[in-house]
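Today's session is about reading a structure prediction critically. Students often jump straight to the picture, but the first step is always the sequence itself: look for stretches that repeat, for charged clusters, for runs of hydrophobic residues. Only then move on to the predicted structure, which in these notes is written as discrete structure tokens rather than atom positions. Here is the chain we will use throughout the hour.
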Amino acid sequence: MTFKPYLRPNRVLEALAGGETPLGMQMYTHDPDLVEIVGYAGFDFVMLDMEHNRTNPETMVQLIRAAEVSGLSPLVRVGANDAFLIRSAVESGAQGIVVPHVKTAEEARAGLVAGHYPPEGKCGICPAIRASGYSQDNWEEYMAASNRQIMFIPLLEDVEAIDNAEEIISVLKPGRDAVGVGGADIANAMLKEPGERVQWAHPYLKEANEKVKAICEAKGIPIMGMAFPTSDRAGVETARANGVKIVIFYPDSHIWMQACRKIIEEVRG
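Below is the predicted structure for this chain, in token form.
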């Protein structure tokens, strides 16, 4: 019996369909062992980051393999809304494409089209890719499964994106896609003077989150958001209260830094 890798279930979508909250970890480091540990610990997915670190396409494939073997659904945050980067993630086996700084409905459509096959999209075709099992056998089945399973998740990280939130979210498909709000980028965009401190809880962020929450509830689109301000149960409950349906935790590198600091504080006082 031929193994069909594209028939792996998307654990994020499964959890949402069952009324549960999928839990994921941002992965900034490039070590497959750490990805496996996240999976064996019981998380549902990882978001492999190619925007804020040095993960390259070759490394991304190895991290996706580590995610699969440990039972995780791999999402990939590409470095930009670029058709080549998106197609590379799809062909490598990603089950979700996270695109930063989507500011308009046109940009959202471009990203969605780049990550899905005809007739829904215009993703380039090559039957010898990893996601299809390196074969053109059952190609039509692969394309249908890919379109059904691969999430498109635009990140609204600019004031312009919040202004256009309803139009952007209207592009998304209920039951498959999601959206995120990039509070850090928006908070930094609020800076007016050199040397001014960032207001991580800027009043505009509450307004932006409430607007996106209302639109998503009306259109049946889940929000992916951080467990904040702490990576624990309280942080998850705060995220849920803000309308988050897909919870993601601080990057692995940040959590490792916190663990190291705790050791030093406890040992050295």
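Discussion point for the tutorial: The radius of gyration is 19 Å.
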